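Tutorial, part two.
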Amino acid sequence: MKSAIFIERDGILNECRVERGQQMSPRTLDDFRVNLDAREPLQRLQDAGFLLLATTNQPGISRGYLSRRELDLMHMVLRKKLPIDDLLMCTHDEMDHCPCRKPSPGLIREAAFKHHLDLDRSFVVSDKWQDAQAAHNAGCISILLQSPWIGKGHHDFVLLDLNAIVEKILWLRRIRSP
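Running the prediction step on this input gives:
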């Protein structure tokens, strides 16, 4: 079975603006800025044999303020500029109680089935508590980028930058390998 890195889109793979203390996902392709500094660290993980899977909650689709066409264009740009193997998203609102909406582990479990993944040897990288909780619920290791959105819930590690996260993942893989 393969190992994967589940990477939160907003805040890790692309830039977000902050309004009233909240991260705001881009709503248009013009507002979408890929974090090009992530390319080299992600490539290191992919070269090490990890499957790279972007994950994202995009409730703007169900709320009606984000068009599916704009979102698909953003994801096309993201895949062109960063080494992403697959992208999984939940387009539901919190009120829909969808099992794929993070912090529920549905996206992770869906990917595990689709890609034949060993979740015990997979990691979730994010800057938000919801992803850490989804990782915990699915049996993955969570590594959070220090941010105002990590919360006080469960998380395995909190690090200062993406390069430190990559080093931690590679180190953990070495010490956990048979």
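The CA atoms of residues 169 and 175 lie 10 Å apart. In part three we will examine how such features are distributed along the chain.
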